[in-house]
Amino acid sequence: MEAYQWKSGQPLTDDYIARFERTGGLFDYNPWQEASWRERVSWLDEQRPSGADRQRVADVLRAYNERAGNQPEALAAAELLRDPLTLVIAGGQQAGLFTGQLLVVYKAVTLIAAAREASLRLGRPVVPVFWIAGEDHDFDEVNHIDYLSPSLAVERIKLEHPTGVRTSVSRTAIAEAQWAEAIGQLGGSLMDTEFKEGIVASLREAAEASGTLTDCFARLMARLFGAYGLVLIDSDDPALRALEGPMFRGLLERSGEVNEALQARSARLRELGYEPQVELQEASANLFTYYGEQGERMLLFRTEDGYADRKGERSFTRDELLQRADREPQLLSNNVMTRPLMQDFLFPVLATVLGPAEIAYWGQTGEAFRLFGMRMPILLPRLGFTLVEGTVQKNLQKYGLSVEDVMERMEEKREAWLREQDAYGLEARFAEVKAIFRSSYEPLVGTLGEINPGLKKLGDTNLSKILEQIDFLHHKAEEGLRSQHESGLRQLQRIEVSIRPGGRPQERVYNIYAYLNRYGGDWIGQLLEQPLEVDGKHRVIYM
User: Fold this and answer.
1) Helices 238-253 and 339-346 sit at what angle, rounded to 10 degrees?
2) For residue range 67-84, what is the model confidence (pLDDT) as tens digits?
3) Which residues, including other chains, have CB under 8 Å from residue 190's CB and lie 6 or more apart?
4) Dihedral sign computed on CA atoms, order 360, 366, 371, 374
5) Reduced to 3 states, what is the DSSP secondary structure of residue 237?
6) Could you give the CA distance from residue 284 to residue 307 in angstroms, rounded to a whole number?
7) How far apart are the first and last CA of the chain?
8) 3-state SS of the chain: helix, strand, coil percent to 5?
9) Distances in Å between the alpha carbon of 516 and those of 59, 102, 423, 499, 511?
10) The pTM is what?
11) Of 35, 134, 438, 489, which is the most exposed, with the fewest CB atoms less than 10 Å away?
């Protein structure tokens, strides 16, 4: 395993990781200073406002993880939250099909590694809690996985939305036939190995016990990480919602102030030269509610009389929503800007693990935390990994490429390699022919113009057409060269689609099960046994 610094695509996140001093007070703690950790612990112990009752939170976590079939180590970790000394490293993701993209697995790895390190550093219990964003209604974002086919094409396995109703993923039932079809497609995509039969059986078992994508996601994550003490919770769990009523009431009562605080911090971002990650709307309440028999999820906007949907077609009085907060909090839901506040209300969060875009939008929330007497927790960048398999590694060495080359300059490297194979010097020779022809022909065309201006125009057209034909022949010659070196180009293509498919990082495209099928699950344990420093760097793992 080797590490290197790479650009996340988020300027604020890149500065947060490598140049924290540039972030201008957007964040309450510098994660790279030891003093920040002690300061956060002291604040949690002595100044944190009263949040959800620890004992009830532990009860909810215990019950949920038991239902998800989590391991004894995770159940024991949930019990630790009853102790006032216990702190939390939190982080989460939407409930993707068969755990979704690799980055979801890596977030769990980061949570476990960060909690382990913090516990050793502070000498007190620190529990990793994975927040499954089951309240999210964007089904199309989580209903698929991609895999690399034998023809080196990125193919997709997808679940169609069973109803089309815009409700939370945790409330969207998946039929047995849908599960069977998706598992059949996944099985068909996996090569025959000693692990395949067990993997397919495990997926079937998880799906049979699951009514929704969230249920299945939790069961699979429990199997992968429960033995390392990873505690799971679904944000849309009714028992958890029952604890959130007081915070929902506060968010409703102060929704205008919350939005002003978010707007103010967004303006500060712009002053510092960053573009806010989340576009805020003036009247947004930054909360959702559910309505109708099918439980559709609707974003709330403030009106003169209360709240309404974006188009003003459905409305609620302020008192109606406050009653929901008090009596039926399961009918309310956070948006991306208020979820961080709810997380800190529920848990004594020492630090939260975030992806690049998440760190960027958390930069908009600092003033909102302060409204409720809170402080933004320490933000830890999720560990990123690229898995390089044996054949790919050999080909990297064969062509003198680094993973960084593939990530950042693959097209340039491929063309350079192809030019090296051109023993005939085609590019130079065609360029020479064009130059010689132009130098001989253009004076002739000029002379023809003295005879008749019309001949000059005809000559220019003729010159252009001849040059086009030379370019056409050059193109055909290059195609022939590529065909002659098809084997090498295909090896370069395999490198690229393995490491950076479609120009995107591997961890944002592929799913974990292709790698579990080829290598078993021991490599995850080996990874977690490494002294993984949560430092914002990307790591390359040679399998």
Assistant:
1) 120
2) 999 999 999 999 999 999
3) 196, 199, 200, 513, 514, 517
4) positive
5) coil
6) 9
7) 9
8) 55, 15, 30
9) 33, 11, 43, 17, 10
10) 0.90
11) 35
Which of 110, 155, 159 is CA-nearest to residue 130? Answer: 110
Q: Which two tokens stand for residue 26?
A: 């957007």
Structure tokens at 290: 């559910």
Q: Are 385 and 349 in contact (CB under 8 A)?
A: no
Q: CA 421, CA 415: separation in Å to the nearest integer?
A: 10
In the chain, the amino acid numbered 251 is L
The amino acid present at 93, given as its one-letter code, is: Q
The pLDDT tens digits for 209-236 are 999 999 999 999 999 999 999 999 999 9
- Euclidean distance between CA atoms 98 and 183, whole angstroms: 9
Amino acid at 238: P
The label of the residue with tokens 């002053």 reads 271
Distances (CA, A) of 141 to 91, 95, 137, 438, 523: 18, 9, 9, 55, 28
Cα 360–chain centre separation:
13
Task: With beta carbons less than 8 A apart as the criterion, state whether 17 and 536 touch.
Answer: yes
As given in the structure block, the two tokens for residue 25 are 């007070």
What distances in angstroms separate CA 419 from CA 292, 422, 461, 492, one per listed residue? 64, 5, 32, 14
Q: Pseudo-torsion of CA 388, 141, 520, 180, nearest 10°? A: -140
Q: Which among 189, 186, 154 has a CA at the least distance from the CA of 496?
A: 154
